Amino acid sequence: MLRSAPSSGAETLRSTHRSLDLKIVGGVNATDAEFPYLVSLQMNPEFGNRYHYCSGSIFNASHIISAANCVEGRSVSEIQVVAGALTLQTTGADDPFIQRRDVVLVNIHSQFDPETLQNNVALLSLNEQLQFNSRIQPVVLPQQQMFVGNCTVVGWGSNLTPDGPSPEPQFLLKQNMTIVSLADCQSIYEFIYEIADTMICSKGTKDEETQGPCAGDTGSPLLCTDASNNATVIAGIFSWSMVPCGDSSYPSIYTNITTMETIF
């Protein structure tokens, strides 16, 4: 989700920045099976053209973690999960490595606030279990909220255009990110949006460049190294960012996965 500064400052913010990009800004191509826990949330082709609109992570063979605003207001029958894809160009083709599942139940966090986007997390139940292989694996949850080194955000971005779904393929991108302390993040957004304790903030590793997730990356995981065991874990779920995406002055915002234990 993309947000602009409210009130009279909005036009000033928009007018001083570049036009909107619809994918991870500054990202580089991921490699095959590098992120086997990432899935694409797509419109079920039974309800019209198939297209990617959000991402998620495999929690286990029967469940997907994503953002609540990716599923709120949608019928579960409209949502299809696509696992094992590297490029969205192949998700409509007969690729033996790709598995598609329908969603039969959505469990949105009971305290999700669609206005502030606090507790922006949901658990999706699949109609059939995923079969794990080298390209389809569950994500690892953190043991504690302590991470070392840089983090990584991954996603396909959006293939939605103002005229509707675009046929252009979207390759999976990754971008290194650095965590911004909650106190610093709250200070940055003090007069713009509320940053709750249930959120994580991050920005690109190079202040002089625009780096970060954008439209279509909502629900994508923020992957960090767990300080307790050096495992790559999901630290957060991409929730929203300011326009333009990747501006180092305004960190991108994620739901902190360690505060979401009640939904699991």
TrEMBL record:
SMART domains: Tryp_SPc (SM00020). Pfam families: Trypsin (PF00089). PROSITE patterns: TRYPSIN_DOM. Signal peptide: none annotated. Residues 24-264 form the Peptidase S1 domain. Keywords: Disulfide bond. It comes from the Eukaryota. This is Peptidase S1 domain-containing protein. It comes from Orchesella dallaii.
